[in-house]
Amino acid sequence: MSTLPLRPGLEGETPYGAPELDVPVRLNVNENPYAPSEAVVASIRDAVAQAATGLNRYPDRDFPALRAALADYLDVESGVRVAPEQVWAANGSNEVMLHVLQAFGGPGRTCLTFTPTYSMYSEYARDTLTEYVTERRAVDFTLDLDVVREAIARTRPAVIILASPNNPTGTALPLDDVRAVLDAARGTGPLAADGARTDAVVVIDEAYGEFRRPGVPSALELLSDNPHLAVSRTMSKAFGMAGLRLGYLAASRELVDCLRVVRLPYHLSAVTQAAALAALSHREELMSQVASLRGERDDLVTWLREQGWNAHESDSNFVLFGPFEDRDAVFKALLERGVLIRVVGPDGYLRVCIGTPEEMGAFRTALTAVAGAPSSEERNA
Ligand SMILES: *Cc1c(COP(=O)(O)O)cnc(C)c1O
Question: Measured in Å, how far apart are the chain's first and last C-alpha atoms?
Fold first, then answer.
């Protein structure tokens, strides 16, 4: 029995994270399988060496150069121009999201999400003493707008988080649905101290935004009309820099200024800032793999369906597929063959992330060996 005064609510909690196993084919945490090229590595090395000469000083607290580079990147990627002051960054979008909950959540306040979705959201809420409420997504994993409107009216959330493309389902939300949520969020946030109405903050988590199919828009397009919208992105996935820990969001200046209040001073190290800037200067090269990963993903969906599995449409770099009578057994059997995927999402389903063509070949071979095609009864389960 521990005598440490662990805060109520944390008893029995374990640290979040997928198993970190050293196996040949790792398709479990949605990373980009391609390591940075020599040229990218050289740029990062030079930038970090330069930053090292000033490491006796604290880094730039508001990192304007990096925010400007991220704004440029968003312009190129989505055709939406935001000012550097509308960009915020931290050590992974996980930390960005924590800033959002620190600024807008808290005791007596509610964060609303729609499941199945990313399981870290509940941890940001727990860690900021924010009440966490989830409602279900529709059967196709989009939103049922009646459910959304009812939940917003009932819970008056301070923050609504929607992943699009969603993890673990791969589903992107139509912009009309995002617009409907933004409209429903107006005036339905918690009452301010003086009794005034507030607009609930709507976070669209576009961690997988770059993988969306052609013609699928980004919620960045809605920023100019919605000061209560934040669109979150990361360099961890499409950009191939998960080890860097750099996430960011775009929002109104007003919203970003609220986040600046709660960040720790100097939260983004000079080394991180330098490495991120260097990586962004190679954005074309780093993004060139995205098209082939998308193609590989679409081929995988087709292949899984040909084998008789249900595979969900995906706008991300992973595919949710099943159903399996015993998904844990399939997961283990794949692992014994050196292929690591993820047990996550609705009962009976598994998530596999897109790797290199060789890795996907290994996955197909292993899955064929460990699990025969389902019967039609199983498929309709
Ligand atoms: C991977 C992921 C993130 C990103 O996290 P980082 O902290 O930027 O690495 C955010 N949201 C979702 C839904 C994710 O799957």
Answer: 44
